[in-house]
Amino acid sequence: EVQLVESGGGVVQAGGSLRLSCVVSGFTFDDYAIGWFRRAPGKEREGVSCISRRDGSTYNKDSVRGRFTISSDNAKNTVYLQMNSLKPEDTGVYYCAAEEPAWNYYTYCTDNYYANGGMDYWGKGTQVTVSS
User: What is the pLDDT of residue 59?
Assistant: First the structure.
């Protein structure tokens, strides 16, 4: 059974940093991608950052590029989202999700189908609140 467990959310002032973690278990092979998605208050869920577990290729949404970094520690089966220079508009519930195969990581982050529940496996989410 595939499971994803997020942690690391919290309350931070604008300009601050947080690191989210997503521990992944249950996959037999590494041919999958992990995405971080967020749902801001009153908005639809959107893809933020995605990574291929096979070769480490990444995608970041325009509004977070240069501030957020997605990375993977394969030995720990953990994917991280380092969030720096946080803004109030980054507030929301952050979910990690997994989908196969790994090479399609870009589409998982940019096609709304996946953000709206199309990913096969989801964590329960962690709240990030950025105060101004």
Answer: 98
Average pLDDT over residues 114-124: 96
DSSP the chain: --EEEEE--EEEETT--EEEEEEEE--SSS--EEEEEEE-TTS--EEEEEEETTT--EEE-GGGBTTEEEEEEGGGTEEEEEE-S--GGG-EEEEEEEES-GGGHHHHHH-HHIIIIISSEE---EEEEEE-
Beta bridge partners of 65: 68
Report the C-alpha gap between 130 and 88 in whole angstroms: 5
- Per-residue pLDDT of 9-60, as tens digits, reads 999 999 999 999 999 999 887 899 999 999 999 999 999 999 999 999 999 9
